[in-house]
Amino acid sequence: MADAALRLKGLVEQLLGAPLPVRVRAWDGTEAGPPDAPVLVVRNRRALRRLLFKPGELGLARAWVAGDLDVDGDLYAALDALADLIWERGEDARTLGQALRDPEVRAAARGLLRLAGPPLPPAPPAEEMRRRRGHLHTRRTDKRAISHHYDVGNDFYELVLGPSMVYSCAYWPAPESAGGTLEEAQRDKLELVSVKLGLKPGMRLLDVGCGWGSMAIHAAREHGVDVVGVTLSQEQAAYARKRVAEEGLTDRIEIRVQDYRDVTDGPFDAISSIGMAEHVGAEKYLQYARHLYALLKPGGRLLNHQIARRPQRDESAYDVDAFIDAYVFPDGELAPVGTTVTQLERAGFEVRDLESIREHYALTLRRWVANLEAGWDRATGLVSPGRARVWRLYMAASALAFEHNRIGVNQVLAVRTPESGTSGLPLRTRTWN
Fold first, then answer.
1. What is the tens place of the pLDDT at every residue in 269-309?
2. Same domain, 341 and 376
3. Residue 332 and residue 19: Cα distance in Å, rounded?
4. Of 116, 151, 180, at which residue does a domain stop?
5. 134: alpha, beta or left, given left = phi > 0 and alpha = psi -120 to 50?
6. Sheet containing 39-42, strands listed edge to edge, beginning at the edge strand earlier in sequence
7. Residue 123 lies in a domain
């Protein structure tokens, strides 16, 4: 079809009832749209079929992961331009149904179907994790979800995360200028957690969701504590144990492949949970908080470092992000920070400090994206091209979500305050002891 881009642009704008905010380059090489806008490359008609049979974010994600859609130029600018289509319109079937009552919208949909051509919708890319029926966040389903995300190869994570091997928000000294290296900022984050927990020689720390062992190693090496680290990922555990041995810390650190619910050898003086609680799930969160509370000594501290979403007007209508759930963090759930604080307090904790570090995560993600892009050829060799595209899209989109305050990240310090009421914290909590 001659001039497919112009035809595609016109039909999409008729369907949306708004101008397309990007320039389109179609499979026939033609282009249409604002000359200075980011370029969305539609490599084939299959991309249209994916979008038509799964409108919204998931259809776009499938086309991106499969390589049917691409961006020529700045990915962040393209995602920013498409933000209203991806995040604001969403995938509400009722809204789509209402729109299709309009004769012009129906005509545009029929035109896009003709342009897309047969056959019926293609299968999702192999990297998509199919949701299974049944209860979420059992030990079996959690292990499966964690394996999907983390057991993709330690070499791949080394490329993305860099030498620190920390897969959570770093702590930057100058967010305005993004000064300092990623490794320095991650070291500062681990030290911030250690200081908030008041780690001292001889203490016993539980690191829940210990990843590749970075927090455990930092706490043992820099603060002289004994550490139990738990993860559900076999690959993470093997990597962490190797690092512990290389540091000469095997007498101070034990790395386990273990569900946090199966940890029974408390009490601990302190617990760190860094980027793990997002996997717990709303229905299990109070159980999570109560179990950690039970594992702490009276006066012990919990540092809960967790991503949060903005509250919804109707919380009962909240649904998980379709792309993240299918490709990135299966069964992961985000909660507003107020909900997290409430659940921790219901479990018995006294919440003593909350620090939002939202802007820090945007900076961290942009560094991870830069690492991935710089090592793209090696990354696609270590995993599949589709898997690498998943990581590039989700990290870039997440960076923008943090920058625009669609999501945040918070460090919540909570104490198992003894009956005496003495928390053990200084009167001025920002002068951490």
1. 999 999 999 989 888 999 999 999 999 999 999 999 999 99
2. yes
3. 34
4. 116
5. left
6. 31-32, 23-25, 39-42, 69-72
7. no
Count Cβ atoms below 10 Å from residue 65 Cβ, excluding itself. Answer: 27
Check pLDDT > 50 for residue 91: no
With 0-12 / 13-18 / 19 or more C-beta atoms within 10 angstroms meaning exposed / middle / buried, residue 283 is exposed
Angle at 406 between CA 18 and CA 413, to 5 degrees: 175
What is the 8-class DSSP label of residue 88?
Answer: I
pTM of the model: 0.90
Longest dimension (CA), the chain: 80
Within a domain: 387 = yes
The two structure tokens encoding residue 343: 């659940």
Q: With contact defined as beta carbons under 8 Å apart, do 409 and 305 qualify?
A: yes
Amino acid at 243: R
Residue 432, domain member (yes or no): no
Amino acid at 416: R
In a domain, residue 431? The reply is: no
Within this chain, do residues 75 and 145 fall inside the same structural domain, yes or no? no
Q: How many domains does the chain have?
A: 2
Q: Whats the size of the chain, residue-wise?
A: 433
Query: How many CB atoms are located within 10 Å of the residue 19 CB?
Result: 12
Classify burial at 395, counting beta carbons within 10 Å of its beta carbon; exposed 0-12, middle 13-18, buried 19 or more: buried
Q: Please give the Cα distance from 358 to 362 (Å, whole number).
A: 7
**Element spanning 271, H or E:** strand 268-274
| Rounded Cα–Cα distance for residues 220 and 271 (Å) | 13
What is the enclosing helix (H) or strand (E) of 414? strand 407-415
3-state secondary structure 292-336: HHHHEEEEEEEEEEEEEECCCCCHHHCCCCHHHHHHHCCCCCCEC
Cα four-point dihedral sign 147, 148, 151, 157: negative
Tens digits of per-residue pLDDT, 18-31?
899 999 999 999 99
